[in-house]
Design brief:
about 260 residues; alpha/beta; Rossmann fold; 9 helices; 5 strands
Length: about 260
């Protein structure tokens, strides 16, 4: 079944929140702050149905999200699920914003986490209206909104293509290739173009090129056969006329 190729939505900016279950209090503070500012919150406690494959669903939510927030605590660092969510977000090229709620031991942090720029939410900083942390977090979420939304849209299309066993009908087409060319080039320059998205882009480009070449060959064949067909048609008509004339002459001579 082919998917609809709609444009990216312009709904509220969506934020996936990665957190350790032991830090439900930090999640509550963060979620309240996000909702009050009109952001849509994605989290594993609400968007995963009973019996659903949780890892796959979390991957879908990360792909859908415009920004990923990591509520950084010692529990987050110790959580295998949180580390998987972090790896998946980075691997997908998502904008990841670590929000520090509790002191952590630097030596226990993985290099991938140490390289990211953190925001300090310790001491209730996020709940203080107009605080530096709140201002910077709002800017980090809203910056390059359309760019991040285009990336989310592409990731969802790419995931669907992979889910459908790389069915060519789920590849990008000419108008979409043109529309998203700038976004993909920018992702590449920012080192945020994931391997799967790169594969999807290359497969789409190659398929479109093959389509163009096939069309071109058909047009060339049509041009080649057109005069031949025309001459055959003319010859056929002339043949009929000649036969008619010969028949008339034959009748004329019989008199």
């Amino acid at each position: 079944m082919k998917r609809e190729r709609s444009a990216p939505s312009v709904d509220a900016i969506s934020v996936f929140v990665s957190y350790a279950r032991a830090n439900a209090n930090h999640l509550e503070v963060t979620e309240k702050w996000l909702i009050l500012r009109g952001f849509s919150v994605l989290k594993d406690t609400a968007q995963i149905a009973p019996g659903e494959r949780w890892k796959r669903r979390i991957g879908e939510m990360i792909a859908e999200a415009d920004v990923v927030l990591c509520l950084l605590t010692s529990d987050f660092v110790a959580s295998n699920v949180c580390q998987w969510e972090l790896d998946h977000s980075i691997g997908s090229g998502k904008r990841v914003v670590p929000l520090l709620f509790e002191d952590v031991i630097q030596d226990e942090l993985r290099p991938i986490l140490r390289e990211l720029n953190w925001l300090d939410a310790r001491g209730g900083a996020l709940g203080q209206e107009g605080s530096e942390t709140a201002t910077k977090l709002h800017a980090a979420i809203t910056e390059d909104f359309l760019f991040n939304r285009n990336q989310s849209f592409l990731l969802q299309l790419c995931d669907r293509w992979i889910e459908e066993e790389r069915d060519p009908s789920f590849l990008l087409r000419s108008k979409q290739l043109d529309h998203f060319a700038t976004t993909l080039a920018e992702l590449d320059s920012r080192k945020r173009l994931s391997l799967t998205l790169r594969e999807y882009w290359n497969a789409s480009s190659q398929y479109e090129l093959n389509e163009i070449m096939t069309t071109s060959r058909l047009q060339q064949k049509a041009k080649f056969w057109s005069p031949i067909t025309t001459s055959i048609n003319i010859g056929f008509v002339l043949g009929i006329l000649a036969a008619a004339v010969m028949a008339a002459l034959s009748v004329f001579r019989s008199f």
